[in-house]
Design brief:
Helix content: over 70%
Shape: globular
Largest sheet: none
Number of strands: 0
Order of helices and strands: HHHHHH
Distance between the termini: 37 Å
Number of helices: 6
Length: 107
């Protein structure tokens, strides 16, 4: 099945991206996460990690876009909310940051 092959390839790329994140190789992580997004653009797990990576790299707007999309696809995920809260803080949205962080803590 071509769809499953594409989804599996996207999942593999996401896992490689997560491994690079853990090794603090953020530029390399972003390359894998971007490739996964091309294959599977509505994968909340990939978007969550790509958003976190973009935040570390200083792309706060891109980070927020990914995390908002991840939240829309998979609402009330504590990791997404924590990452988005941290991104909002970097953007100076302290109220929004606190709301996300409090919501994550309540889950």
């Amino acid at each position: 099945n071509q769809f499953m092959d594409k989804k599996q390839k996207a999942n593999n790329l996401t896992q490689l991206g997560v491994e690079k994140m853990k090794a603090e190789l953020y530029q390399e992580a972003l390359k894998y996460l971007d490739q996964a997004d091309v294959l599977s653009p509505n994968d909340a797990f990939n978007l969550q990690h790509r958003g976190a990576t973009k935040r570390v790299l200083g792309d706060y707007k891109g980070s927020l876009e990914d995390l908002n999309k991840a939240d829309a696809l998979s609402p009330n995920d504590a990791c997404t909310l924590r990452n988005r809260g941290a991104t909002k803080k970097r953007l100076g949205d302290y109220k929004g940051s606190l709301e996300d962080l409090n919501k994550a803590d309540a889950l």
